[in-house]
Amino acid sequence: MGRKDDIINAAVSLFAENGYFATPTSAVAKKACVAEGLIFHHFKNKAGILIYIFTELSEVYIREIETLIKKAKPGLDALLAVVRFHFEFAESKSTKFKVLLRDFPLELTSSDSEAGKIIAEHMTISLNQIKKCIERGRKDGSIRDVPMEETAYIIRGMLNGLSRFKINMPGISINPNIYSEVENFCRRSLSRQNKSSDS
Amino acid sequence: MGRKDDIINAAVSLFAENGYFATPTSAVAKKACVAEGLIFHHFKNKAGILIYIFTELSEVYIREIETLIKKAKPGLDALLAVVRFHFEFAESKSTKFKVLLRDFPLELTSSDSEAGKIIAEHMTISLNQIKKCIERGRKDGSIRDVPMEETAYIIRGMLNGLSRFKINMPGISINPNIYSEVENFCRRSLSRQNKSSDS
Amino acid sequence: MGRKDDIINAAVSLFAENGYFATPTSAVAKKACVAEGLIFHHFKNKAGILIYIFTELSEVYIREIETLIKKAKPGLDALLAVVRFHFEFAESKSTKFKVLLRDFPLELTSSDSEAGKIIAEHMTISLNQIKKCIERGRKDGSIRDVPMEETAYIIRGMLNGLSRFKINMPGISINPNIYSEVENFCRRSLSRQNKSSDS
Amino acid sequence: MGRKDDIINAAVSLFAENGYFATPTSAVAKKACVAEGLIFHHFKNKAGILIYIFTELSEVYIREIETLIKKAKPGLDALLAVVRFHFEFAESKSTKFKVLLRDFPLELTSSDSEAGKIIAEHMTISLNQIKKCIERGRKDGSIRDVPMEETAYIIRGMLNGLSRFKINMPGISINPNIYSEVENFCRRSLSRQNKSSDS
DNA sequence: GATGAATGAGTATTCATTCAT
DNA sequence: CATGAATGAATACTCATTCAT
Asked: Which CATH superfamily is A51-190 part of?
């Protein structure tokens, strides 16, 4: 509803298709059937569009993971649920996800910019959610004695890296059920009882 | 040495600092103290510079890993050596590495372009190296029974993801010895004898 | 008071600070806490704001000079009173004055436009007031035999030039009592009895 | 000659005709028969064109006045020669002069900008030249006892104000020999021997 | 090899102004 | 009177690339 959403939708599909840098605002306007000026009436910047998409998507991502964590009992289960959710989410919102992982401009990432702060903040929240799982897992005995900070960092990096890998390397085909394999990979590494119980 | 190298060096430092897109060829020329035209005399394209940097660096990366794999006896040791090497390499060649992981333009990645093919090819080689380690490990009993394709993909994605994470999220500080922790993470997941033998 | 005056006040301060061209109507609206559309409800044009400010200010300027001239007896005294008044007025209404002298747009000055006519008209009135002083002075013997037209033109130009000079050259400091010196300068040039009576 | 001069010439005539703000760089390029980009290759800024014109013209102005002052013997004669020269110069280089006096943007004048410094510097030099005349005149007895600083300021302001007046008020006709009248105006005010000796 | 003037298409952004509500 | 979403034309400036020298 509303022209603003038209702009977002147009931007999402164009950015996903051609990349943020390669998409002129004029193309966004044309696709959204609005005057180019309206984009800047609503977003102030071309980057503003990207930030808006990021924020909107990331808030859902974080919120749903929050619910997820609360539901799952043992820490390991929670963590693996997060892993599973990540890839399901990436699949279901694949277009928007593609936009964000594709060529998210570093100008925005540089932490001194307004946008950089937002991104860093969201990333920190996400890291904390993973840490919380690990911590809980170590307490309830489902996760073995691993360093919390580092492990969270590793898992977060792995999730991003894999999603990016898939999006950016369309040439390299891979079994789509790889993502369940990621769960196995993590479970083996983190599970306390080492009964080599997998696949 | 020679002007061509001046151009490469200038490009590496500028691309690392500001990103490929945000660096005009004029800036490269100025920093290299050459006329702008000379860049196109040597490289045909702006993208040509990036490809040159990528190829040069990637060839070393692959070659050194090749030697590494040959030396290490059990498959697991080889694989972990690859992991260790990746981060050491990223550290020692950090500027060039930053260029490649920073905002490697998707136009180049899209597999139909000349550059895209080169990149995909290198990535495939790298994947094969990892697969080879896993395969060997499964034969010599050092690695447990994991699916080769998927696991290689996971490890490759994890390495890229973590390096990217570090480079692009300077706001989020992390223990620098995280990389040895990555080894632990992988060893626990892949090692056959589950003696939970780690730090 | 009322929204219209809010707009005028906002415009005066912004135009004085940043110039007419460099001040978007959106900025005026924001500063005045009104919707941008309201400006055009009241003024038809962006230029309309400037014209309004000019007219309002110029009418006071002319009216007060009129009273002044009537009071002062000899023509020379009247003329010098005008000079003195000009700088006092410029000082007391300095913000508005700055607006008008700052970068009064030539599009408005070009005499075929509506605004140009108004401005030219006011300028003519002002010139006539000065002429009247000179004429009276020559009759009553206080002003020597100078060509009326040209002298009026010179004085009018001098007053504008000096005010503009001060406003636009903040880097060049000048004794603030320079304006009394302008009176001396004119008195010496115009006074019949050449007793070199000054300072 | 060469394309750079073509650009300058085109800019001078267009700026004089329509004003700096109302002249798009595209119009300058078209009139100069060059690609628009070339303007920025040579001048970095639109403002750069104006600065170039200013500097070039102002340097001639100052240099010629310098020679003038050296030639003229008594200080008063030197000063009046400066006044006469100013208007002759304004007439002969009328187009360029018009550009500078027309709507020289205050952004450039604000003394913190690069351009502002140049302008202030030139203005200071010009003021000093006038001061020098006054000082000499007071020593050689041709100029009466007037405050040097203030008088120089007044004359400089008067010259600018009158030239601006003429350029910007085409509606108000004035005897073209007004400028010799300016000389008289100044002579009467400054000359020591008060014989009211003038036309 | 090397220069740098010249190109020209491309693009984000601004801004006065309109108009439905 | 008042709003503010919407317009769309206008424009300064960028930048990869070419080419005569």
From this structure: Tetracycline Repressor, domain 2 (1.10.357.10)
CB A144 within 8 A of CB A191: yes
Calpha distance B87→B95 (Å, rounded): 13
Against chain C, the chains showing at least 3 CB pairs within 8 Å are: D
DSSP at C47 = H
pLDDT for the residue numbered A117:
84
Residue that the structure tokens 């078209």 belong to:
D30
Burial of B99: CB neighbours in 10 Å, binned 0-12, 13-18, 19+: buried
CB atoms within 10 A of CB C191: 22
Query: Hey, are the CB atoms on A164 and B160 less than 8 Å from each other?
Result: yes
Q: Return all residues near A179 (Cβ < 8 A) that are at least 6 apart.
A: A83, A84, A87, A162
Task: Determine the pLDDT at residue A171.
Answer: 74
At residue C82, the pLDDT reads: 97
pLDDT digits (tens, 9 = 90+) for A4-38: 999 999 999 999 988 898 999 999 999 999 999 99
Q: Is the CB of A60 under 7 A from strand F?
A: no
| Chains in touch with D (≥3 Cβ pairs < 8 A) | C
Say if residue A139's pLDDT is above 90. yes
Q: Which of C18, C113, C159, C165 to mutate to test the interface with D (most CBs of D within 10 A)?
A: C165
Give CATH 1.10.357.10 domain extents, chain D: 47-190
D65: left (phi over 0), alpha (psi -120 to 50) or beta: alpha
Looking at chain D, which residues constitute the CATH 1.10.10.60 domain(s)?
Answer: 1-44
Query: Which of the four pLDDT bands, split at 50, 70 and 90, describes residue C158?
Result: very high
Q: Does domain C47-190 have CATH number 2.110.10.10?
A: no
Query: Is there a contact between A169 and B123 if contact means CB atoms under 8 Å apart?
Result: yes
Distance from A67 to chain B by nearest Cα, in Å? 25
CATH superfamily of C1-44: Homeodomain-like (1.10.10.60)
Counting every residue written for chain B, the total comes to 199
> What are the average pLDDT values for consecutive 10-residue runs of chain D, which has 199 residues?
92 92 95 97 94 93 96 92 95 86 70 79 95 96 95 96 85 83 97 58
> Is A143 in a helix, a strand, or coil?
strand
Q: Which nucleotides of F are covered by protein (CB under 7 A)?
A: 1-20
Tokens of B161: 């993801």
Of A162, A168, A172, Cβ closest to residue B124: A172
Please state, in angstroms and rounded to a whole number, the distance separating the CA atoms of residues C76 and C82: 10
Choice among B92-101, C32-41, C77-86, C141-150 with the minimum mean pLDDT: B92-101
pTM of the model: 0.88
Q: With respect to CATH, is domain B50-190 assigned 1.10.1740.10?
A: no
